[in-house]
Amino acid sequence: VSLASHDPSSVSHDVSVAPTIGFITLGCAKNEADTDRMSALLANAGFHLAHVQLMGSLDEGECDEVAEVVRSSDVVAINTCSFLTSASEEAIAVILDVLAQHDFVPGHTRLVVTGCLPARYGDQLDDELPEVDAFVPVDREDDIVEIIQRVCGLSDAQMSTIGEAVSGPARLRMTEEPWAYVKISDGCDRFCSFCAIPFIRGRYHSRTFAEIDAEIAELVSCGVSEIVLIGQDTGIWGHDFSVPDAEFDVFDLAGMLDALARRYPETWFRVMYLQPEGITDNLLATMARHDTICSYLDIPLQHASAQVIREMNRAGDGPTYLALLERIREQVPHATLRSTFIVGFPGETEDDFDELLDFIEAASFDYAGVFAFSAEEGTVAGERIDQIAEDVRMARARMLQEHAERMGHTRALALRNTRVEVLICGYDEERDCWYGRSQAQAPDVDGVIYVRNVDESHNGMRVAVNIDEVYGFEMEGVLV
Ligand code: SF4
After folding, report:
1. Is the dihedral of CA 22, 208, 176, 370 positive or negative?
2. Which residue from 232, 272, 299 has its CB within 8 A of the most atoms of ligand 1, so it is best to mutate?
3. Sorting pLDDT into bands at 50, 70 and 90, what band is 130?
4. Ligand 1, atom 1: nearest CA belongs to which residue?
Protein backbone atom coordinates (compact mmCIF):
# COMPACT_ATOMS: atom_id res chain seq x y z
CA VAL A 1 0.00 0.00 0.00
CA SER A 2 1.67 3.14 -1.04
CA LEU A 3 0.98 6.71 -1.84
CA ALA A 4 4.26 7.56 -3.36
CA SER A 5 3.99 11.18 -4.28
CA HIS A 6 1.22 12.52 -2.07
CA ASP A 7 2.10 14.04 1.26
CA PRO A 8 -1.20 14.73 3.07
CA SER A 9 0.56 17.29 5.26
CA SER A 10 1.11 19.40 2.15
CA VAL A 11 -2.66 20.02 1.95
CA SER A 12 -4.21 22.17 4.65
CA HIS A 13 -7.13 19.97 5.59
CA ASP A 14 -8.30 18.77 8.96
CA VAL A 15 -7.20 15.23 8.11
CA SER A 16 -8.26 13.72 11.44
CA VAL A 17 -11.83 13.13 10.21
CA ALA A 18 -11.15 12.42 6.55
CA PRO A 19 -12.25 8.98 5.36
CA THR A 20 -9.60 6.91 3.57
CA ILE A 21 -10.36 5.77 0.03
CA GLY A 22 -8.47 2.63 -0.99
CA PHE A 23 -8.11 2.29 -4.76
CA ILE A 24 -7.57 -1.07 -6.42
CA THR A 25 -6.73 -0.57 -10.10
CA LEU A 26 -7.16 -3.31 -12.70
CA GLY A 27 -6.45 -3.32 -16.41
CA CYS A 28 -4.47 -1.09 -18.68
CA ALA A 29 -2.43 2.09 -18.56
CA LYS A 30 -5.51 4.19 -19.31
CA ASN A 31 -7.13 2.95 -16.11
CA GLU A 32 -3.97 3.77 -14.16
CA ALA A 33 -4.16 7.36 -15.44
CA ASP A 34 -7.88 7.51 -14.55
CA THR A 35 -7.17 6.32 -11.00
CA ASP A 36 -4.50 9.03 -10.63
CA ARG A 37 -7.01 11.65 -11.79
CA MET A 38 -9.80 10.47 -9.45
CA SER A 39 -7.28 10.24 -6.60
CA ALA A 40 -6.25 13.86 -7.18
CA LEU A 41 -9.90 15.00 -7.09
CA LEU A 42 -10.45 13.13 -3.82
CA ALA A 43 -7.19 14.31 -2.23
CA ASN A 44 -7.94 17.89 -3.22
CA ALA A 45 -11.32 17.52 -1.44
CA GLY A 46 -9.56 16.30 1.71
CA PHE A 47 -9.84 12.50 1.56
CA HIS A 48 -6.95 10.21 2.44
CA LEU A 49 -5.86 7.65 -0.14
CA ALA A 50 -4.37 4.19 -0.30
CA HIS A 51 -3.70 2.21 -3.43
CA VAL A 52 -2.77 -1.09 -5.03
CA GLN A 53 -2.26 -1.85 -8.73
CA LEU A 54 -3.26 -5.31 -9.96
CA MET A 55 -2.69 -6.86 -13.35
CA GLY A 56 -5.57 -9.36 -13.19
CA SER A 57 -6.78 -11.99 -10.78
CA LEU A 58 -5.02 -11.97 -7.44
CA ASP A 59 -1.82 -13.84 -6.82
CA GLU A 60 -0.54 -14.48 -3.31
CA GLY A 61 1.44 -11.27 -2.83
CA GLU A 62 -1.35 -9.15 -4.26
CA CYS A 63 -3.85 -10.78 -1.86
CA ASP A 64 -1.83 -9.34 1.04
CA GLU A 65 -1.81 -5.90 -0.58
CA VAL A 66 -5.57 -6.00 -1.16
CA ALA A 67 -6.12 -7.12 2.45
CA GLU A 68 -4.05 -4.16 3.61
CA VAL A 69 -6.01 -1.70 1.45
CA VAL A 70 -9.30 -3.10 2.80
CA ARG A 71 -8.02 -2.97 6.38
CA SER A 72 -6.92 0.64 6.10
CA SER A 73 -9.85 2.05 4.08
CA ASP A 74 -13.32 3.35 4.83
CA VAL A 75 -14.22 3.11 1.15
CA VAL A 76 -12.70 0.56 -1.23
CA ALA A 77 -12.84 1.76 -4.85
CA ILE A 78 -12.12 -0.83 -7.55
CA ASN A 79 -11.29 0.71 -10.93
CA THR A 80 -12.17 -2.08 -13.35
CA CYS A 81 -11.32 -3.29 -16.85
CA SER A 82 -13.98 -4.87 -19.05
CA PHE A 83 -12.36 -4.85 -22.49
CA LEU A 84 -12.67 -8.63 -22.75
CA THR A 85 -15.04 -11.07 -21.10
CA SER A 86 -12.05 -12.51 -19.24
CA ALA A 87 -11.24 -9.03 -17.85
CA SER A 88 -14.86 -8.61 -16.68
CA GLU A 89 -14.67 -11.99 -14.96
CA GLU A 90 -11.44 -10.99 -13.25
CA ALA A 91 -12.99 -7.71 -12.12
CA ILE A 92 -15.94 -9.56 -10.58
CA ALA A 93 -13.53 -12.02 -8.92
CA VAL A 94 -11.66 -9.11 -7.33
CA ILE A 95 -14.94 -7.52 -6.15
CA LEU A 96 -15.91 -10.83 -4.51
CA ASP A 97 -12.41 -11.15 -3.02
CA VAL A 98 -12.73 -7.73 -1.44
CA LEU A 99 -16.18 -8.55 -0.04
CA ALA A 100 -14.78 -11.76 1.45
CA GLN A 101 -11.91 -10.01 3.26
CA HIS A 102 -11.95 -10.40 7.03
CA ASP A 103 -11.63 -6.61 7.48
CA PHE A 104 -14.44 -5.74 5.08
CA VAL A 105 -17.22 -4.88 7.52
CA PRO A 106 -20.66 -4.81 5.85
CA GLY A 107 -22.48 -1.65 6.77
CA HIS A 108 -19.23 0.04 7.71
CA THR A 109 -16.75 -0.45 4.85
CA ARG A 110 -18.15 0.99 1.60
CA LEU A 111 -17.50 -0.46 -1.84
CA VAL A 112 -17.45 1.59 -5.06
CA VAL A 113 -16.81 0.11 -8.51
CA THR A 114 -15.58 2.50 -11.20
CA GLY A 115 -14.47 2.31 -14.84
CA CYS A 116 -15.20 -0.07 -17.68
CA LEU A 117 -17.28 -2.76 -15.93
CA PRO A 118 -20.14 -0.39 -14.97
CA ALA A 119 -19.76 1.39 -18.33
CA ARG A 120 -20.25 -1.89 -20.16
CA TYR A 121 -22.89 -3.61 -18.03
CA GLY A 122 -24.73 -0.64 -16.52
CA ASP A 123 -27.86 -1.37 -14.53
CA GLN A 124 -27.45 -5.14 -14.79
CA LEU A 125 -24.84 -4.90 -12.05
CA ASP A 126 -27.19 -3.45 -9.43
CA ASP A 127 -29.05 -6.75 -9.20
CA GLU A 128 -25.97 -8.93 -9.56
CA LEU A 129 -23.86 -7.15 -6.94
CA PRO A 130 -26.19 -5.49 -4.40
CA GLU A 131 -23.28 -5.22 -1.91
CA VAL A 132 -21.71 -2.49 -4.06
CA ASP A 133 -22.61 0.99 -2.79
CA ALA A 134 -22.08 2.80 -6.10
CA PHE A 135 -21.17 2.02 -9.68
CA VAL A 136 -19.31 4.82 -11.44
CA PRO A 137 -19.02 4.39 -15.21
CA VAL A 138 -16.17 6.05 -17.09
CA ASP A 139 -18.19 9.13 -18.05
CA ARG A 140 -19.10 9.82 -14.38
CA GLU A 141 -15.59 9.53 -12.93
CA ASP A 142 -15.25 13.31 -12.71
CA ASP A 143 -18.12 13.23 -10.16
CA ILE A 144 -16.20 10.87 -7.86
CA VAL A 145 -16.05 13.34 -4.94
CA GLU A 146 -19.83 13.84 -4.83
CA ILE A 147 -20.40 10.09 -5.23
CA ILE A 148 -18.02 9.19 -2.38
CA GLN A 149 -19.54 11.94 -0.24
CA ARG A 150 -22.97 10.38 -0.76
CA VAL A 151 -21.72 6.85 -0.18
CA CYS A 152 -20.11 7.94 3.11
CA GLY A 153 -23.26 9.82 4.11
CA LEU A 154 -21.30 13.03 4.61
CA SER A 155 -23.23 16.28 4.68
CA ASP A 156 -21.84 19.41 3.03
CA ALA A 157 -21.03 20.71 6.52
CA GLN A 158 -19.04 17.54 7.33
CA MET A 159 -17.25 17.83 3.99
CA SER A 160 -16.13 21.30 4.94
CA THR A 161 -14.61 19.95 8.18
CA ILE A 162 -12.57 17.53 6.08
CA GLY A 163 -11.21 20.49 4.20
CA GLU A 164 -12.06 23.23 1.80
CA ALA A 165 -11.76 21.99 -1.74
CA VAL A 166 -8.34 23.03 -2.99
CA SER A 167 -7.00 23.13 -6.50
CA GLY A 168 -4.11 20.73 -6.05
CA PRO A 169 -2.45 18.58 -8.66
CA ALA A 170 -4.53 17.32 -11.58
CA ARG A 171 -3.11 13.91 -11.01
CA LEU A 172 -1.93 12.01 -7.96
CA ARG A 173 0.58 9.40 -9.03
CA MET A 174 0.50 6.12 -7.19
CA THR A 175 3.86 4.92 -8.43
CA GLU A 176 7.39 6.27 -8.17
CA GLU A 177 8.65 5.28 -11.61
CA PRO A 178 10.46 8.00 -13.57
CA TRP A 179 7.99 7.60 -16.42
CA ALA A 180 4.25 8.16 -16.67
CA TYR A 181 1.34 7.51 -18.97
CA VAL A 182 -0.58 10.58 -20.12
CA LYS A 183 -3.94 10.18 -21.82
CA ILE A 184 -4.35 12.42 -24.86
CA SER A 185 -7.80 11.17 -25.85
CA ASP A 186 -10.47 8.71 -24.84
CA GLY A 187 -13.12 6.75 -26.70
CA CYS A 188 -13.03 5.49 -30.27
CA ASP A 189 -15.01 6.01 -33.47
CA ARG A 190 -13.65 3.09 -35.46
CA PHE A 191 -16.08 0.38 -34.34
CA CYS A 192 -13.88 -2.56 -35.25
CA SER A 193 -16.33 -5.45 -35.39
CA PHE A 194 -14.64 -7.38 -32.56
CA CYS A 195 -14.22 -4.55 -30.08
CA ALA A 196 -16.42 -3.36 -27.21
CA ILE A 197 -14.37 -0.24 -26.45
CA PRO A 198 -16.55 2.27 -28.37
CA PHE A 199 -19.55 1.03 -26.34
CA ILE A 200 -17.60 1.33 -23.07
CA ARG A 201 -15.57 4.51 -23.56
CA GLY A 202 -17.86 6.35 -25.97
CA ARG A 203 -17.04 8.43 -29.04
CA TYR A 204 -13.53 9.75 -29.66
CA HIS A 205 -12.70 12.93 -27.80
CA SER A 206 -9.30 14.61 -27.64
CA ARG A 207 -8.05 16.33 -24.52
CA THR A 208 -6.93 19.87 -25.23
CA PHE A 209 -3.26 20.63 -25.63
CA ALA A 210 -3.48 23.01 -22.66
CA GLU A 211 -4.73 20.17 -20.40
CA ILE A 212 -2.13 17.70 -21.65
CA ASP A 213 0.66 20.25 -21.34
CA ALA A 214 -0.35 21.20 -17.78
CA GLU A 215 -0.32 17.54 -16.73
CA ILE A 216 3.07 16.96 -18.33
CA ALA A 217 4.51 20.11 -16.71
CA GLU A 218 3.40 18.76 -13.32
CA LEU A 219 4.93 15.33 -13.99
CA VAL A 220 8.22 16.73 -15.30
CA SER A 221 8.51 19.00 -12.26
CA CYS A 222 8.19 15.85 -10.09
CA GLY A 223 11.15 14.24 -11.86
CA VAL A 224 9.40 12.20 -14.56
CA SER A 225 11.78 11.70 -17.50
CA GLU A 226 9.61 9.80 -19.95
CA ILE A 227 6.03 10.56 -20.96
CA VAL A 228 4.06 7.82 -22.71
CA LEU A 229 1.14 9.29 -24.64
CA ILE A 230 -1.85 6.97 -24.78
CA GLY A 231 -5.40 6.86 -26.13
CA GLN A 232 -7.40 4.32 -28.14
CA ASP A 233 -6.39 5.99 -31.40
CA THR A 234 -3.56 8.46 -30.79
CA GLY A 235 -2.79 9.20 -34.45
CA ILE A 236 -5.97 11.20 -35.01
CA TRP A 237 -5.55 13.36 -31.91
CA GLY A 238 -7.05 16.81 -32.51
CA HIS A 239 -9.22 15.89 -35.51
CA ASP A 240 -12.34 16.56 -33.41
CA PHE A 241 -11.38 20.15 -32.59
CA SER A 242 -13.45 22.62 -34.58
CA VAL A 243 -10.60 25.16 -34.44
CA PRO A 244 -6.90 24.58 -33.77
CA ASP A 245 -5.72 25.51 -30.30
CA ALA A 246 -5.15 29.23 -30.84
CA GLU A 247 -2.86 29.69 -27.85
CA PHE A 248 -0.43 26.96 -28.84
CA ASP A 249 -1.09 26.60 -32.58
CA VAL A 250 -1.18 22.84 -32.20
CA PHE A 251 -3.77 20.85 -34.10
CA ASP A 252 -2.49 17.34 -34.76
CA LEU A 253 -0.27 14.69 -33.17
CA ALA A 254 2.83 15.76 -35.11
CA GLY A 255 2.32 19.36 -33.98
CA MET A 256 1.76 18.28 -30.39
CA LEU A 257 4.92 16.14 -30.32
CA ASP A 258 6.94 18.93 -31.88
CA ALA A 259 5.66 21.42 -29.29
CA LEU A 260 6.26 19.02 -26.39
CA ALA A 261 9.79 18.18 -27.53
CA ARG A 262 10.60 21.89 -27.63
CA ARG A 263 8.96 22.70 -24.28
CA TYR A 264 10.54 19.75 -22.42
CA PRO A 265 13.89 19.17 -24.12
CA GLU A 266 15.14 16.73 -21.44
CA THR A 267 12.09 14.46 -21.57
CA TRP A 268 11.51 11.39 -23.72
CA PHE A 269 8.11 11.21 -25.44
CA ARG A 270 6.64 7.93 -26.64
CA VAL A 271 3.35 7.37 -28.47
CA MET A 272 1.35 4.15 -28.17
CA TYR A 273 -1.67 2.83 -30.16
CA LEU A 274 -1.07 4.48 -33.53
CA GLN A 275 -3.61 3.17 -36.04
CA PRO A 276 -2.08 2.89 -39.55
CA GLU A 277 -4.14 5.81 -40.91
CA GLY A 278 -2.61 8.15 -38.32
CA ILE A 279 0.98 7.62 -39.48
CA THR A 280 1.52 10.65 -41.70
CA ASP A 281 4.79 11.76 -43.31
CA ASN A 282 4.62 14.81 -41.08
CA LEU A 283 4.49 12.60 -37.97
CA LEU A 284 7.44 10.51 -39.15
CA ALA A 285 9.44 13.64 -40.00
CA THR A 286 8.74 15.01 -36.50
CA MET A 287 9.90 11.75 -34.92
CA ALA A 288 13.06 11.79 -37.02
CA ARG A 289 13.75 15.45 -36.20
CA HIS A 290 13.78 15.13 -32.38
CA ASP A 291 16.13 12.77 -30.53
CA THR A 292 13.82 12.85 -27.53
CA ILE A 293 10.77 11.56 -29.40
CA CYS A 294 11.23 7.81 -29.22
CA SER A 295 11.67 6.22 -32.62
CA TYR A 296 9.09 3.67 -31.57
CA LEU A 297 5.85 2.94 -33.39
CA ASP A 298 3.16 0.78 -31.85
CA ILE A 299 0.73 -0.01 -34.69
CA PRO A 300 -2.10 -2.46 -33.94
CA LEU A 301 -2.62 -4.07 -37.36
CA GLN A 302 -4.70 -7.05 -36.13
CA HIS A 303 -4.38 -9.16 -39.33
CA ALA A 304 -2.89 -9.28 -42.82
CA SER A 305 -5.58 -11.03 -44.84
CA ALA A 306 -7.66 -8.46 -46.78
CA GLN A 307 -10.79 -10.55 -46.24
CA VAL A 308 -10.36 -10.76 -42.45
CA ILE A 309 -9.37 -7.11 -42.16
CA ARG A 310 -12.51 -6.09 -44.07
CA GLU A 311 -14.68 -8.23 -41.81
CA MET A 312 -13.01 -6.63 -38.82
CA ASN A 313 -14.36 -3.34 -40.24
CA ARG A 314 -10.83 -2.10 -40.70
CA ALA A 315 -8.92 -0.86 -43.74
CA GLY A 316 -5.86 -2.20 -45.52
CA ASP A 317 -4.21 -5.49 -46.37
CA GLY A 318 -0.83 -7.19 -46.06
CA PRO A 319 0.86 -5.42 -49.02
CA THR A 320 -0.29 -1.93 -47.96
CA TYR A 321 0.88 -2.61 -44.40
CA LEU A 322 4.29 -3.78 -45.66
CA ALA A 323 4.54 -0.59 -47.74
CA LEU A 324 3.71 1.41 -44.60
CA LEU A 325 6.45 -0.33 -42.60
CA GLU A 326 8.93 0.32 -45.42
CA ARG A 327 7.98 4.01 -45.45
CA ILE A 328 8.49 4.20 -41.68
CA ARG A 329 11.89 2.50 -41.85
CA GLU A 330 12.98 4.84 -44.64
CA GLN A 331 11.92 7.99 -42.82
CA VAL A 332 12.73 7.10 -39.20
CA PRO A 333 16.17 5.48 -39.00
CA HIS A 334 16.38 2.64 -36.43
CA ALA A 335 12.63 2.70 -35.85
CA THR A 336 11.37 0.09 -33.41
CA LEU A 337 8.12 -1.50 -34.57
CA ARG A 338 5.49 -3.15 -32.37
CA SER A 339 2.13 -4.52 -33.46
CA THR A 340 -0.74 -6.65 -32.18
CA PHE A 341 -2.69 -9.36 -34.00
CA ILE A 342 -5.89 -11.31 -33.45
CA VAL A 343 -6.09 -14.89 -34.71
CA GLY A 344 -9.14 -17.13 -34.98
CA PHE A 345 -11.46 -14.31 -36.06
CA PRO A 346 -14.81 -15.84 -37.19
CA GLY A 347 -14.44 -17.31 -40.66
CA GLU A 348 -10.61 -17.09 -40.66
CA THR A 349 -9.44 -19.84 -43.03
CA GLU A 350 -6.17 -21.76 -43.05
CA ASP A 351 -5.18 -19.61 -46.05
CA ASP A 352 -5.92 -16.40 -44.13
CA PHE A 353 -3.81 -17.62 -41.24
CA ASP A 354 -0.94 -18.69 -43.54
CA GLU A 355 -1.04 -15.21 -45.08
CA LEU A 356 -0.64 -13.75 -41.60
CA LEU A 357 2.32 -16.04 -40.84
CA ASP A 358 4.02 -14.98 -44.08
CA PHE A 359 3.30 -11.34 -43.27
CA ILE A 360 4.91 -11.61 -39.82
CA GLU A 361 8.06 -13.06 -41.42
CA ALA A 362 8.20 -10.29 -44.01
CA ALA A 363 7.38 -7.47 -41.58
CA SER A 364 10.04 -8.44 -39.03
CA PHE A 365 8.55 -6.59 -36.06
CA ASP A 366 10.63 -5.99 -32.99
CA TYR A 367 7.64 -6.93 -30.83
CA ALA A 368 4.24 -8.41 -31.60
CA GLY A 369 1.38 -9.17 -29.23
CA VAL A 370 -0.83 -12.07 -30.28
CA PHE A 371 -4.38 -12.61 -29.02
CA ALA A 372 -6.81 -15.44 -29.70
CA PHE A 373 -10.15 -13.96 -30.78
CA SER A 374 -12.61 -13.48 -27.94
CA ALA A 375 -16.32 -13.29 -28.86
CA GLU A 376 -17.47 -10.18 -27.03
CA GLU A 377 -21.12 -9.73 -26.16
CA GLY A 378 -22.73 -6.89 -28.12
CA THR A 379 -20.14 -6.82 -30.92
CA VAL A 380 -20.80 -7.76 -34.55
CA ALA A 381 -18.04 -10.38 -34.63
CA GLY A 382 -19.09 -11.80 -31.29
CA GLU A 383 -22.56 -12.58 -32.69
CA ARG A 384 -21.34 -14.38 -35.83
CA ILE A 385 -22.25 -18.04 -36.22
CA ASP A 386 -18.99 -19.05 -37.93
CA GLN A 387 -16.88 -18.93 -34.75
CA ILE A 388 -13.61 -20.85 -34.85
CA ALA A 389 -13.24 -23.68 -32.34
CA GLU A 390 -11.28 -22.70 -29.22
CA ASP A 391 -8.55 -25.31 -29.72
CA VAL A 392 -7.92 -24.01 -33.25
CA ARG A 393 -7.81 -20.37 -32.06
CA MET A 394 -5.36 -21.26 -29.30
CA ALA A 395 -3.15 -23.35 -31.57
CA ARG A 396 -2.99 -20.53 -34.13
CA ALA A 397 -2.19 -18.00 -31.41
CA ARG A 398 0.66 -20.17 -30.13
CA MET A 399 2.05 -20.68 -33.62
CA LEU A 400 1.92 -16.98 -34.51
CA GLN A 401 3.44 -16.03 -31.15
CA GLU A 402 6.35 -18.42 -31.77
CA HIS A 403 6.95 -16.90 -35.21
CA ALA A 404 6.76 -13.37 -33.87
CA GLU A 405 9.11 -14.13 -30.98
CA ARG A 406 11.64 -15.74 -33.28
CA MET A 407 11.67 -12.60 -35.44
CA GLY A 408 11.83 -10.33 -32.39
CA HIS A 409 14.65 -12.29 -30.74
CA THR A 410 16.70 -12.08 -33.94
CA ARG A 411 16.31 -8.31 -33.97
CA ALA A 412 17.12 -8.06 -30.25
CA LEU A 413 20.28 -10.15 -30.71
CA ALA A 414 21.60 -7.54 -33.13
CA LEU A 415 21.84 -5.18 -30.14
CA ARG A 416 24.55 -7.25 -28.43
CA ASN A 417 27.80 -5.27 -28.19
CA THR A 418 26.12 -1.99 -29.00
CA ARG A 419 25.79 1.12 -26.86
CA VAL A 420 22.32 2.42 -26.01
CA GLU A 421 20.90 5.16 -23.84
CA VAL A 422 18.95 3.67 -20.93
CA LEU A 423 16.51 5.33 -18.54
CA ILE A 424 17.10 3.65 -15.17
CA CYS A 425 13.62 2.81 -13.89
CA GLY A 426 13.82 0.45 -10.94
CA TYR A 427 15.46 -2.28 -8.92
CA ASP A 428 14.81 -6.00 -9.35
CA GLU A 429 15.11 -7.63 -5.95
CA GLU A 430 15.23 -11.18 -7.30
CA ARG A 431 18.16 -10.35 -9.56
CA ASP A 432 19.64 -7.86 -7.12
CA CYS A 433 20.15 -5.50 -10.04
CA TRP A 434 18.95 -2.12 -11.30
CA TYR A 435 17.23 -2.05 -14.67
CA GLY A 436 16.00 0.43 -17.22
CA ARG A 437 14.66 0.76 -20.73
CA SER A 438 15.96 2.19 -23.98
CA GLN A 439 13.86 4.14 -26.46
CA ALA A 440 13.23 0.79 -28.16
CA GLN A 441 11.39 -0.62 -25.12
CA ALA A 442 7.98 0.59 -23.98
CA PRO A 443 7.01 0.13 -20.33
CA ASP A 444 4.96 -2.90 -19.31
CA VAL A 445 4.97 -4.62 -22.72
CA ASP A 446 8.58 -4.96 -23.92
CA GLY A 447 11.70 -6.20 -22.15
CA VAL A 448 14.13 -4.31 -19.90
CA ILE A 449 17.89 -3.89 -19.74
CA TYR A 450 19.61 -4.92 -16.49
CA VAL A 451 22.60 -2.70 -15.78
CA ARG A 452 25.12 -4.33 -13.46
CA ASN A 453 27.12 -1.37 -12.22
CA VAL A 454 24.53 1.28 -11.40
CA ASP A 455 23.00 2.03 -8.02
CA GLU A 456 20.18 4.02 -6.48
CA SER A 457 21.87 7.31 -7.33
CA HIS A 458 21.21 6.55 -11.03
CA ASN A 459 17.47 5.96 -10.58
CA GLY A 460 15.57 8.19 -13.02
CA MET A 461 18.74 9.10 -14.93
CA ARG A 462 19.51 8.38 -18.56
CA VAL A 463 22.87 6.65 -18.91
CA ALA A 464 24.93 5.07 -21.70
CA VAL A 465 25.07 1.28 -21.44
CA ASN A 466 27.06 -1.31 -23.36
CA ILE A 467 24.82 -4.33 -23.96
CA ASP A 468 26.78 -7.55 -23.53
CA GLU A 469 24.04 -10.16 -23.08
CA VAL A 470 20.68 -10.68 -24.79
CA TYR A 471 18.21 -13.30 -23.49
CA GLY A 472 15.06 -13.23 -25.61
CA PHE A 473 13.72 -9.73 -25.09
CA GLU A 474 15.71 -9.08 -21.90
CA MET A 475 19.22 -7.64 -22.03
CA GLU A 476 22.09 -7.03 -19.69
CA GLY A 477 24.93 -4.56 -19.83
CA VAL A 478 27.30 -2.22 -18.06
CA LEU A 479 27.34 1.50 -17.59
CA VAL A 480 29.88 3.09 -19.87
S1 SF4 B 1 -9.44 1.08 -33.05
FE2 SF4 B 1 -10.77 -0.70 -33.11
S3 SF4 B 1 -9.81 -2.12 -31.64
FE4 SF4 B 1 -8.99 -0.10 -31.17
S5 SF4 B 1 -10.35 0.71 -29.55
FE6 SF4 B 1 -11.13 1.44 -31.56
S7 SF4 B 1 -12.69 -0.04 -32.12
FE8 SF4 B 1 -11.43 -1.00 -30.52
Report:
1. positive
2. 232
3. very high
4. 190
